[in-house]
Design goal:
Blueprint lengths: L1 H28 L2 H21 L5 H4 L1 H26 L2
Amino acid sequence: MNDQLHNLENEIHAIKERNVRVEADKAWETSKFRIFTLCVITYVIAACVLYAVGVANFFLSAFVPTAGFFLSVQSLPAIKRWWVKKYLEK
């Protein structure tokens, strides 16, 4: 009986630890810091590529893919809500 109780306590503890990790991952995925960081990385990489291919205004042109990424990220929560609703209706 004690072994079963101990096993259940261990399982509950493992589930609680997993929930903390899942909540942290969710917070990261929806954080403004993550979006800002990815926008900066996108801009730097786009500017480097545009410079390498000889685009005259590569700093200005690098805003195009960065803006596209930013706008796509902003629309994802709405698309996710729609998808989850449809998925749960099955």
